[in-house]
């Protein structure tokens, strides 16, 4: 997204970890997911687990480079979910850019990222 001119700030308690620790944790999670998928009866026969794993590793490597290059854009914190406080208000606290506006009607159980960002995070309710 940054390559497309989008100014992104990410907030997660895991960003307190070093790149080595983040990579170890992500690879362990990926291995667990791949194990579950390989044992699944519902996976499409043509689905290529090896290619899928490689795509995730490429995404992880790109993330780690960005995390190392722009450490101030990765904030080790929790986004709170409190009455009267929405994602836009919380994100604006951490953003050094213009205020962020959240999408009006996120799906149940999800907090959507600001318009222009194609991510969503699980609700912390």
Protein architecture, described:
- Helix content is 40%, strand content 8%.
- The protein has 125 residues and is mostly helical.
- The strands form two sheets. A two-stranded parallel sheet has the order 1-2.
- α1 (19-39) runs antiparallel to α2 (49-69).
- The longest helix has 21 residues, at 19-39.
- The radius of gyration is 17 Å and the shape is elongated.
Describe the global form. elongated
What are the secondary-structure elements, in order, as H or E? Answer: EHHEHEE
Treating each run of at least 4 consecutive H or I residues as one helix, how many helices?
Answer: 3
Distance between the termini: 28 Å
* Helix content, binned percent: 40-55%
What portion of residues belong to β-strands? 5-15%
Structural domain count: 2
Strand order in the largest sheet: 1-2
Main sheet overview: 2 strands, parallel
Total beta-strand segments: 4
Low-pLDDT regions: 92-125
Radius of gyration: 17 Å
Task: List the quaternary state of the chains.
Answer: single chain
Mean pLDDT: 73
| Structural class assignment | mainly alpha
């Amino acid at each position: 997204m940054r390559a497309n001119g989008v100014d992104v700030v990410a907030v997660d308690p895991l960003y307190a970890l070093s790149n080595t620790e983040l990579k170890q944790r992500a690879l362990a999670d990926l291995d667990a997911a791949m194990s579950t998928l390989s044992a699944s009866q519902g996976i499409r026969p043509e689905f290529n687990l090896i290619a899928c794993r490689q795509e995730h590793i490429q995404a992880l490597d790109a993330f780690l480079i960005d995390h190392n290059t722009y450490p101030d854009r990765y904030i080790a914190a929790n986004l709170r979910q409190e009455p009267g406080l929405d994602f836009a208000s919380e994100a604006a606290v951490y953003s050094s850019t213009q205020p962020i506006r959240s999408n009006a009607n996120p799906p149940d159980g999800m907090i959507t990222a600001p318009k222009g960002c194609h991510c969503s995070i699980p609700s912390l309710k």
